[in-house]
Each structure stands twice: as structure tokens, then as C-alpha cells.
Amino acid sequence: MLEVSHVSVNYDHVVALEDISCTINDGAIVSIIGSNGAGKTTLLNTISGLVKKKAGTITWHGKSLPQKPHKVVRTGIVQVPEGRHVFANLTVTENLIMGGSRLSHSKSHKNIEEMYKHFPILDERRAQKAGLLSGGEQQMLAIARGLMAEPEILLLDEPSLGLAPRIVLHVFEIIKEINESGITVLLVEQNASQAMAISDYTYVLENGKIVYEGKSEDLQNNPEIKKAYLGS
Prior knowledge:
The chain is α/β, with parallel strands linked by helices and 232 residues long. The chain has a single domain (2-229), classed as P-loop containing nucleotide triphosphate hydrolases (Rossmann fold).
């Protein structure tokens, strides 16, 4: 279980997160929704150790989480950043090798082949430069690169951003498959409808504060959530 307790984050004098508490249970998909600037990415970056918190604690399996990104990865928490950020001048295979850099050569090779089974389109593009892939293919590569590190929990930041509707549906199917394989998912997503459709629990973030939380199914039927985030 990943537990964020009373976490606050400031950027200089600007409050980015204020007294945030949330729990991500093992095996669940938990979504974080909210408007632009609500603090969703900051929350993931704080968990990952990319942003220093002002107050509060983050524990993973009952132990305090390290505050340096490489140490966080070693605990089994891996973030796939917003905007994909693949290594454009490296091939698909080389990007995957980077994702599994802490693994042995044999384990890395085995995981790469597993990624190609899971993402057949990447298998077809394995020798292609990542910068030449379509947006959807780059997103799949970013997710596969994250999976190379063998995470227990995957932090996904806006995986559907900028993708065509057909590709968005495919990405969400992939997220469900990842979760069904035993990996916990913390999903930050502006596509609230899709996020809540596949998640077990949802937190709604506004202006750095959690304003709603509950089972995703229940929040989907909440009139205020419908009006503010589901366009109905």
C-alpha cells in the first residue's frame, strides 16, 4: 500500500499541494482527476522524488519512501511522465534497454521480448528511431519502458494526452491489462470519464486540494462531478 499523508508542496511562495492525503491499495487502479493546474502532476512528481515536499509523509509498504528518484524506482515505484519523453534519437529497443538499465543483461533481454509480445507494434518498429514513431506508438513505448523496470506500482501521467480517440481507447485497454497482470496503477488523467471507467477509486484535485474522493462508480453518478468533469 502506498500512503500519502498530509503532504504539502510549495513552488517558491505558490502553494501547489495543500494537506493532501490519499491511499493507493495494492492491486488497484486509482485515478486522480482535475482541471489544468490542479496539482495532479505535482502529486506524482512528489511521490517519485522529483519534487520536494514541504510537509507530510509518504510511505510504501509501511516504510518511509526515499526522496531521490533513483531510490524510489528501486523500491518498485516507476513513473511514466506526461508528454512521453522517449529518447527520440535512440531506437525502440535502445529505449527499452534504458528502462531496464538496473537489470542484468539476460533479464533485460527477457523483459524486452516480453514487451514486444505485449506491444506488437513496437516489435515491428524495434529498429526505428523513437522520434519517428506516431504519438500513440511513443506512448506505448513510454509505458513499455516504464514496465522494463519491473514496477510494483506504475504512475501514469496523462497517458491519453494528444492522442486520437481510437488510440486513447487502446491505451486504456493496455492500462487495464497491466493492472490485471498484478501491477498497481496510479493514473493522472484529464479524460475523467475514461479514467473513472477503469479505476476502482478516484480522487478529485482542485487548486492543490482534494475536493472529492470515493469509489469511481459512485463518483460517476455524482451530479456535481458529472457537471464539472464529465460534460453532463
